[in-house]
Structures are given as structure tokens and as C-alpha cells.
Design brief:
The complex is a heterodimer. Chain A has eleven helices and two strands, in the order H-H-E-E-H-H-H-H-H-H-H-H-H. By secondary structure, chain A is mainly α. In chain A, helix 3 packs parallel to helix 6 (147-171), helix 6 packs across helix 8 (188-217) and helix 7 packs antiparallel against helix 8. The model of chain A has no long low-confidence stretch (mean pLDDT 90). Chain B is α/β, with parallel strands linked by helices. Chain B has two domains: 2-104 and 280-359, D-Maltodextrin-Binding Protein, domain 2 (3-Layer(aba) Sandwich), CATH 3.40.190.10; 106-278, 3-Layer(aba) Sandwich (D-Maltodextrin-Binding Protein, domain 2). In chain B, 39% of the residues lie in helices and 19% in strands. Chain B contains 14 helices and 13 strands. Chain B has an eight-stranded mixed beta sheet. In chain B, helix 2 (40-54) links the parallel strand 1 (29-35) and strand 2 (56-62). In chain B, helix 12 runs antiparallel to helix 14 (328-338). The chains are: A mainly alpha, B alpha/beta. The interface between A and B is medium-sized, with 31 and 30 residues.
Chain lengths: 289, 361
């Protein structure tokens, strides 16, 4: 018995250290971001920085603002979410409701989950060599580059995140509820519309919030397709830059105020992602209660 | 307390493992450098060759020119490498640093017009394209200097680098020298504010976009363009000659007037036959090699390595990876500087020209 209790204590300590370490790392990241971006916020002011569309790295005329990239990030992520909806929701219904527990459902869901395992550079290359010429042919975007092109690729990338979680929530809808609806003469479509969605709705919503978080931070595929121009996007097919893509592009040779501004963008992205995750968690909590 | 102890133990264990692996190589001298990515393919090849025949371990980190200068400033490397020389202001903040050019390269203007061979361009036309004033390939200004060539009525799509880059710096330095309008509106820098065109990341990105896009036009590092066999233009140099970028014409750019410490941009060179958008890349070392407890062996090893880099074996290797060797005049210049390197105030031996310590003070 004594040996067991020592093991128990050791295990507890180990867990404590692991948890503490994660907290410390997170705090370290926040500290680095804040201290690194301090110079920019002092120079331009927090509100001016997030509302300015300027991005001029010419020495002597240096002026940096984050608005173009915040808009680019939110626009690509939300359009991607919208585009992934008509694919991920049917998949979730298929695997979580119509064919729940069947072999075909498990095959389809594992194929969809495979999408999550493809490296983003592969999505980027596919977009560059396959999707871009199509977009160019259709006359969308500048030579096929643009927010829409990256949003389409992002949509494909986030389908597995959205569909697998919503499928879980859909399959969790109590059988009694559905059966009572059937007994009242409801068709399957009516059951989905009036029972499944209202019950699982919040959970489905939360899974889309998590998928959105994934879309916000994606870098490589977006960098290859968005066109990388530092301006406020004027339309959905225009070229632009997201916060992640401009950091990926400019960080290597940046110094001084520019480096500080890029780190400030990183901090803003961190905040936006944190807020979105927080909202997602709140909604899930509400759903569970 | 226990947690702290176990953490300490783990740290000590890791440190011991690290020391253990270090000890094995004690007989081999290790040199470390960091800097630009532009010469990385050449340095990788050269250092590997040197390592194989000299029992000296040379590591090089391609972290960007800015990072290379920072590493030398922090005295964490034996040598730094940069595509840009240190400004007087930067020099003033460090102990004396010498610049040793190691090889040359250029920036070429690549284009995608399958029908057009031997395109000729001037700085003014390039400026007009990037400023959005010339938008079609059959613009009268382009036709005027390309007599006999038929141009399609196609839109010109200028492409530029989305990432900060020495390539952009060299290109914009040349453009600012030849076009006052460029100087005022775009300027010189590693990343710039552009008004028209598309952006792509890295030389592969720009070259890829040009090759895929009909009518595209953009600047690419010569080491990448030569390897890719992409079509590029002849550029008008300071003497009014239209010059094709190749080993010979890029090398000639270093024959113009130059300060003894080689700290200058050789764009728009006044030498005949010179390709105007050429550049050096430098290795930077401290003139006084004793810092941060470096040993005499390390100091001598660094000088030996750099001397070898200036020799025929290393210079002959440049063309294999699409760089350009230094002309004899520049090598003499660099050797003269290398001869002044000291360790604790005493001159180090460079190559066969043994300079004994007695010759100095």
C-alpha cells in the first residue's frame, strides 16, 4: 500500500509540473509579445496602430498600422467558414444522424479526418498550381491570387475540424426526444429541423467557432495564395495580407520599428484567437448546462 | 523543493550529455558563422569542401544579413556574413570590423513573353513599369529601344518580393541611382512600399509567378535565375551599353572605382561591359581576433578559412552554384585587409606569406 501512495504522490507532482510548465510557457509567450511590441505601441499608440491602414517600411517614412491585416485575417477566415458550411454540415449529419454507427459513416469520417493531417504547404501548392489557374480563368482575383482563393483553400482545410465535432454533438441528441417526435408522425427532415438542430445547435456552433480559430492562424497556404499586398482589401477577390502571412513574409529581415510592429501583429492575432476560443468555450459551457 | 531538485538534475544530465558530445570533437577546430541566405548555397558547398580536406568544422547559419551582423556584434560567431556592408554608424558602435568580399552575384529582370527574345531595358523603363506608367508590352518607349522586335499588346504584370530581402535592396539601390522619380517615390530598402503589381515570397516565389503568368515581369537573384534558365533582359549600364547578365559582365562590375575596404555598392558601375545590377557578398570579421576568450587556434583558423575562400579552389567553385568569382583586383584588395588581422595585437599568418610577429612592433 505504501509503495502505491508514493507512486500516487509522484504522479500528482508530475502532473503539477507539466501543467505549471504549460502555464509558464504561455506566460512567457505573452511577455515576449508584449515586450517586443512595446516600441510600436509607444510610437503609434494602441488605437492608432489597430485603426491605421498604413504600411510603409521606407527608412525615414516608417509608418505601420494593423487594420489592413486584421480585415484580411477576419475576412478570409469568415468567408472560409461560410464556404465550409455547406460541406461540413451535411457530412456531420450523414455520419452523426443518418448513418450513425454504420461502417460507411466511420469510413467517411476517417477520410474527412485525413484532410486534417495534410500539411498546409501541400494545400498551398495545390492552390497555387491547380486552384489559381482556375480562378484566373474565371477572372476572379488578380491573376488568380486573392482573398477568395485563400478562403477556398482554408475552407477545405477546416472542414474536418467543423464536421467531426458537430457530428459528435448531433449523435449525442437523446434518442427519446427523436423517437417521441417520430411517434407524433414527424418525417426525418422534420426531426432534424425541429429536434436535432435545436438540441445540438449550440454544440455545432461551438465546433464552428473552433474551426474559425484554426482558419485565423493559418499561415503557409494563405501566404502562397493571398497575393501579399499590404493594402486594405477592397473586395473579396482583391489581394491582401493576413496577420499571419505578413509576419511570415517580413519577419526574416525585419529590425527596429518594423520588427516591433510585426510582433505587435502577433500579439493582436494572439488576442483575437484567444477571444474567439473564449467565446467558443462559453457557448459550450452554456450548452452543457 | 523536490521538483526544483529533479529539474536541476535533469538540467545537469542534459548538460553532461552535451559536454560529452563536445569532447569527442576536441581535436577538430570548430568555426561558426551566421548571416545572409543569398550566399548560402555557395558557402555550404565551399565549407563542406574545406572541412573535408582541413579537419576544421565550419558551420554556417543562414539567418539573414541583419542576423549575421547582430551575431557578430554580440560576439557569438567567428565570422558574420552580409550582403550589405556596415554603415559608418554601425561601424562606430563595434570594434573595428573588416569586410572581405567572397563572391559576386546580380539581380536580373526576368519576363514571360515567349515570343520576345533578347529584350532590352533601361532603368527609366523599369521605373515606369513599377510606377504603373507603362502598362503594356507594346508601349512606344519599350519599342523604341528594341528595334526589330514585335511586341504583343499584352498587359505587363510587375512582380515584386513580399518578404524583406537583400535582392530588393540591391535592385532598388540601382533604381534609385538611375531614376530620380524612383528615388523619391519608392526609395531604397530591403522591403518597400509598392503601388502596382503582385507580390511573391522569395526568389522561387517571384520566379514561379513569372513563369506561370503571361506577360509578367520582375526581379530575381541571378543565382536563382541562372539555375532556372528563365528569360531575362539586357540592361543599359552607366556607359549606355546594353549588357546581358553573365559571369563575365557581373565580374566586370567590380572593376570600377572602389574604396580600399570594399565597402561600396557596385550597382551602376562605371566599368565598360559591366552589368549594372551586380553586388558583392561579404564575410565580416573583427580586425582584432581576441574577444570572448577565443583561442589563438580559432583566430588563425578563421583567417586560414577566409584566405582559402579567396584562393583559386574556392573561387572556382562559385560558378558551379551559379555565383560569380571575384576579379583579381578585388582579391588583392581583400588579401591586403586580411593581412592586417591581429590576435592580442600581433599579426596573424596569412597563407604562405608568413609574417612573423617580429615584423610588427
Amino acid at each position: 500500500m505504501r509503495i502505491l501512495s508514493i507512486k500516487d504522490i509522484l504522479f500528482k507532482r508530475l502532473l503539477f509540473v507539466a501543467a505549471l510548465l504549460i502555464l509558464l510557457i504561455c506566460a512567457g509567450i505573452v511577455y515576449t509579445l508584449v515586450s517586443g511590441s512595446y516600441g510600436t505601441f509607444v510610437r503609434f499608440g494602441f488605437f492608432h496602430f489597430i485603426t491605421s491602414t498604413a504600411w510603409n517600411p521606407t527608412i525615414g517614412h516608417e509608418n505601420y498600422g494593423a487594420l489592413s491585416f486584421i480585415v484580411g485575417t477576419l475576412l478570409t477566415a469568415f468567408v472560409a467558414l461560410l464556404l465550409c458550411l455547406p460541406f461540413s454540415l451535411p457530412v456531420a449529419l450523414f455520419t452523426g444522424e443518418y448513418f450513425r454507427g454504420k461502417k460507411i459513416a466511420s469510413i467517411i469520417s476517417s477520410v474527412i479526418n485525413l484532410l486534417a493531417g495534410i500539411p498546409s504547404i501541400v494545400y498551398g501548392l495545390w492552390g497555387f498550381y491547380t486552384l489559381r489557374p482556375i480562378m484566373n480563368h474565371l477572372g476572379w482575383g488578380q491573376q488568380g491570387f486573392g482573398l477568395l482563393t485563400s478562403a477556398i483553400v482554408l475552407a477545405i482545410m477546416i472542414i474536418p475540424y467543423a464536421s467531426s465535432l458537430s457530428s459528435e454533438f448531433i449523435s449525442m441528441v437523446p434518442k427519446d426526444l427523436k423517437e417521441s417526435a417520430y411517434s407524433l408522425g414527424a418525417t426525418r427532415l422534420e426531426v432534424i429541423k425541429n429536434v436535432t438542430f435545436p438540441v445540438a445547435g449550440m454544440g455545432i456552433f461551438a465546433s464552428y467557432v473552433l474551426a474559425l480559430g484554426r482558419a485565423l492562424g493559418e499561415t503557409m497556404a494563405v501566404t502562397m495564395l493571398i497575393g501579399n499586398t499590404n493594402n486594405l482589401p477592397t473586395s473579396i477577390t482583391a489581394t491582401g495580407n493576413t496577420m499571419a502571412s505578413i509576419i511570415a513574409n517580413q519577419f526574416g529581415e525585419a529590425d527596429g520599428l518594423k520588427l516591433s510592429s510585426l510582433i505587435a501583429l502577433g500579439l493582436l492575432l494572439f488576442l483575437i484567437t484567444a477571444i474567439i476560443n473564449f467565446i467558443g468555450k462559453m457557448i459550450m459551457k452554456k450548452f452543457a448546462a | 523543493m523536490k521538483i526544483v531538485n529533479s529539474l536541476l538534475l535533469a538540467t545537469v544530465a542534459i548538460a553532461m550529455v552535451a559536454c560529452g558530445s563536445g569532447k569527442k570533437q576536441q581535436s577538430t577546430l570548430s568555426l561558426a558563422g551566421a548571416g545572409g541566405t543569398f550566399p548560402l548555397p555557395y558557402y555550404t558547398l565551399a565549407f563542406k569542401t574545406y572541412q573535408d580536406s582541413n579537419n576544421v568544422n565550419v558551420t554556417y547559419g543562414g539567418i539573414g544579413s541583419g542576423g549575421g551582423i547582430r551575431s557578430l556584434k554580440d560576439q557569438v560567431v567567428d565570422f558574420g556574413a552580409s550582403d550589405a556592408f556596415l554603415s559608418d554608424k554601425e561601424m562606430a558602435t563595434m570594434s573595428p570590423v573588416i569586410h572581405i568580399p567572397t563572391c559576386m552575384g546580380a539581380v536580373v529582370l526576368a519576363y514571360n513573353l515567349p515570343q520576345v527574345k533578347n529584350l532590352k531595358l533601361t532603368g527609366d523603363i523599369i521605373a515606369d513599369i513599377y510606377l504603373g506608367k507603362i502598362t503594356k508590352w507594346n508601349d512606344p518607349k519599350i519599342k523604341a529601344i528594341n528595334a526589330g522586335t514585335v511586341f504583343p499588346n499584352k498587359k505587363i504584370i510587375p512582380v515584386y518580393r513580399s518578404d524583406g530581402s537583400g535582392t530588393t535592396y540591391i535592385f532598388s539601390d540601382f533604381m534609385s541611382k538611375v531614376s530620380p522619380e524612383w528615388k523619391n517615390s519608392i526609395g531604397t530598402g530591403k522591403s518597400l512600399k509598392w503601388s502596382v503589381g503582385m507580390a511573391s515570397k522569395g526568389n522561387p516565389g517571384v520566379a514561379g509567378t513569372i513563369m506561370q503568368t503571361d506577360g509578367a515581369f520582375g526581379y530575381v537573384g541571378s543565382e536563382y535565375a541562372f539555375a532556372q534558365k528563365i528569360a531575362y533582359a539586357q540592361i543599359k549600364n552607366a556607359l549606355g551599353e546594353f549588357v546581358v547578365p553573365n559571369t563575365e559582365s557581373i565580374s566586370k562590375a567590380a572593376l570600377g572605382d572602389m574604396p580600399a575596404d570594399t565597402r561600396c555598392m557596385i550597382t551602376n558601375s562605371s566599368a565598360p561591359g559591366a552589368y549594372p545590377i551586380s553586388c558583392f557578398t561579404w564575410i565580416l570579421i573583427y580586425k582584432e581576433q581576441y574577444y570572448k576568450n577565443r583561442t589563438m587556434q580559432q583566430a588563425q583558423g578563421t583567417v586560414n578559412l577566409i584566405h582559402w575562400m579567396l584562393g583559386p579552389e574556392a573561387q572556382g567553385m562559385t560558378e558551379k552554384v551559379n555565383y560569380v568569382p571575384l576579379p583579381a583586383k578585388v582579391i588583392a584588395n581583400a588579401e591586403a585587409q586580411l593581412a592586417e588581422v591581429t590576435y592580442k595585437g600581433r599579426l596573424l599568418t596569412v597563407g604562405s606569406k608568413a609574417k612573423s610577429a617580429a615584423l610588427t612592433k
